[in-house]
Design brief:
540 residues; rod-shaped
Amino acid sequence: MERLNHQAELLLKKAEQSHKHTVQDPLMELKSIWDSLNERIINQQGLQNDVLAHLSTVEAVNKAVNDLIESSAGEEANNLQNKLEVLNQHWQNVLEKTEQRKQQLDDALRQMHENAARSFHREIEVLQQWLTDTECHLLASKPLGGLPETAREQLDAHMEICAAFDVIEETYRSLMQKHQQILARCPKSAETNIDQDINNLKEKWESVETKLNERKTKLEEALNLALEFHNSLQEFINWLTQAEQTLNVASQPSLILDTVLFEMDEHKVFASEVNSHRGQIIELDRTGTHLKYFSQKQDVVLIKNLLISVQSRWEKMVQRLVERGRSLDDAKKRAKQFHEAWSKLMEWLEESENSLDSELEIANDPDEIKTQLAQLKEFQKSLGAKHSVYDTTTRTGHSLKEKTSLADDNLKLDDMLTDLKEKLDTICGKSGQRQNKLEEALLFSGQFTDALQALSDWLYRVEPQLAEDQPVHGDVSLVIYMIKNHKVFQKELEKRASSVQALERSAGELTEGNREDSSWVKVQMQELGTPGTPCAHFLY
């Protein structure tokens, strides 16, 4: 009855207000019956005790009456005997009714105990069925979730079962506590069944409890693994997106050596960072493969697609990284080739300019002037030999300008080519000025023949370069360069006009003086001034 009251209290807590009478009315009726039975049993026990208390009195009366009968005679003895028999008959009736009442109450009590035992058995069966259903549900559980959402849903659903198990545990503990009480009240024949039911219930309870804990552990591990995988995957995707953006915004490799070397250093740092993430993509693939084997089909498809997408992006990014490295290497080779050629030529030109600047003094002695002029011609030969290097360097610079789309590269290449041209023009100008001064000094020192020969040598040296049948190449940059060189030649030609005029004056003085070599002088000057000759073509 106490157990029924306890279960009723649990039901009343869960039941709605409108349904509480469904539990309370039968319980009140059952409680009334139970209280009435208990009261009857108590009264019966009191009555039986009271009857048994008169046993000695009945026995004493019987003894006394029997003694009187023995001492009496006739009708008096018969009357006493009849009264004693009536007394004993009433006593016997009281004993029999008392025993019958006791037997009825014992039967009713036993019936109630048997009903309680059957009710206890039914409760065990109900709990056993719930445990069996729960165990079947656990055995039939779906594969683990590979996505955080799926894994969390499975864990939440399982925790609801665990919560229900915790609620049922109170009923289980109550049954365990009532076990001994039921055994004490039940017939011996029912004890074995009750013990067997309790043992089976205990085994099933422990089995389900173990399976619940194991399933909970697996679901928690699955959720942690799914969270770890997807957090790591999202972190890698974020980094991969930034890496792709870094490559997307990377400009075309510079063709300026210092700049491209700096870009290569940056690229090495970036490549090192990319390589440091190689282990992460391998670990993601390993974890994803593990999840694909143990997860639900729909999760497996999504995980597989995610991995394929990320691996494809990774491979493309690595390929672009390699291509970027190759482009930088190629740009470095081109930039280095041009920079080294430009630096060597600039260095030689600066040394040559310093040498020209250190030899400004013109000697007075004709022989020394000739020596200085011969040295200058040697230098001019070296300078002429450098023109091919200059041409190659200039063409390389213009080629780099055509290949680059970077405004800064174009500006720096223009500056380098301009500096180189200005340096070469400066040296050519200074060389021409010094030659003019040396030739004039030679002429003024009375060395007309040597001065004339020097002018003729210069004319015959430049004449092949300006012949009308000289081919004009179709390369735009080369044609522009040839035009610039021709303008330089024209300026030098203008500078030599004073030397030609001085020669003409000296020749006039020589021919008027009727010297022995006047005829040779006339021939030489006529050759310079005859229309159609190369010399006349350049000078007049």
